[in-house]
Amino acid sequence: ELKVVSVQCWLKEWWTGKGEEWPVRPNVKNFHAEAWWYANNRKTGPFETIRYVWFSEDQRLIAMYFQFFINVNRLGGSSSGMDAMLKWDRHLAAFNSQAEAPIKGAWHASRVWTIAEAEKVILDSTLVTLCISLGCVFLGVLVFTRSTHLSLIVMLVVMMIVLGLLFFMVIIMSWKIGAIEVLSLIVFVGFAVDYCLHLSHKYHSCHITDVEEQDDEDEEEEEQEQQSVATRLQNIGRKSISMAAGVSKPGKSGNHRVSMKISDIAVTKATTEKREQNKRVLSKNRSAERFERSKYALERIGGSIVGSALTTIGSACCLLPCTMHVFFKLGAVVCGVTAYAVVFALVPLPAVLMCFGPCGHDFRSILELLGRAAQNLMPEDEEEEDDEETPSALQSSTGCQKFIDEDHILSVAPTDELREHRRYVLNMPSKGMGQVGDTSHVQPTRTRIAIHG
User: Fold this and answer.
1) What is the mean predicted confidence (pLDDT) over 334-359?
2) How far apart are CA 110 and CA 108, in angstroms?
């Protein structure tokens, strides 16, 4: 049950080997003196006996230990080590219950027990530690992109990479879950988030400088012109590289197509009317905006991601031929997590951004809705005071009152009905109530008409 292979027991080789009785009777033999002499002059196996015993200052034996070699794999994981430790606990508990007072209190220790307990603690705290690590990923992406929407997407992609790494270690490599595997899942989250962070940051930081709506006929003519220009450049031996700063692949919106120009630098010379037009077009073509942002991010940062992944894998491959199993595992884990990270950063992440990625004006409608709700909750007395102060009255030569309210002049003749009741003229907004933009929505106003005299 204890899986003992061999024992280094100095007492068995010396005292009981001579046929002496145990325990020793103090009146018959001077056991302490003979033990002192044997410990300093004889060996127990390949080692000196003095390493197994402790003597007091008056050369009396006070403690000793025996070395047992058991058949337990140190790299077998925490389960095998903990099972062996529990068996030794039960064995020594039974021994101490039957032992005499001078030798009662024996205990056991091993490096295998220490490693097994450490691995068990690590395994038990893996889920909590992994959640903390993913929380740090969310905060890190949030700091760099300042977008909660984008941070959630990146965190979900990183979770998929971690699951892929777990599949690589357990299924592909057939490793048992141990301390190295658990630490790899936690520590190498930084490798998993690196490429996703670069791509998402480029997606979020680019600026749409120009937006144009085109009909299908205009689009076909433009494509024919681009093909003719490309053919001319090929004939003279030049290469035409179309960066995302030019016209991107248009998205469809009804019978119209939308072309966008994207750049890393925001355009500040555009007029207010042009900006409002761009915002109005983008609010109707969010899917096209997501597509163009994702395409631009891949064109600008995709090559760098692939190059970085190749250099990382090339460096980690130097650890694969190592004879020490720990270094081999670390090299394999680095190669695996890098491969998963670059694949997820270039394929699933752009696909998710094209479908659910944030746009530059996603929260504008929410803010405007909250603003209108706050205005509606204002007291009516303040609105009436504002209405009384806004119009200015002008007395005409015919005895009528003229009121001016935001470039509207109203001439109203005094009547008995108007003297008894208040009358208002409702000015409807110039644009739709549901349109999004800084100035696209003008609040409805009313003009109060008052008659005096």
Assistant:
1) 93
2) 7
Confidence check: pLDDT of 42 > 90: no
Cβ contact 282:211 at 8 Å: yes
Classify burial at 161, counting beta carbons within 10 Å of its beta carbon; exposed 0-12, middle 13-18, buried 19 or more. buried
* Same domain assignment for residues 168 and 267: yes
Residues 187 and 328 in one domain: yes
Residue type (1 letter), 246: G
Residue 258 pairs in a beta bridge with 213, 251
Is-contact 365 436, C-beta < 8 A?
yes
Tokens coding 12: 């068995």
Residue 230 belongs to some domain of the structure:
no
Same domain, 292 and 425: no
Angle between helices 179-187 and 325-346 (to 10 degrees): 30
Q: Which of 242, 153, 152, 141 is nearest to 190 (CA)?
A: 141
Which distant-in-sequence residues (6+ apart) come within 8 Å of 312 by Cβ?
191, 334, 338
Helix (H) or strand (E) segment spanning residue 70: strand 67-70
Q: Tell me the three state secondary structure of residue 185.
A: helix
pLDDT tens per residue, range 50-90: 888 888 888 888 888 888 888 887 767 777 888 888 888 99
Closest CA to 337 of 155, 212, 202, 195: 195
Crossing angle for the helix pair 189-205 and 348-356, nearest 10 degrees?
40
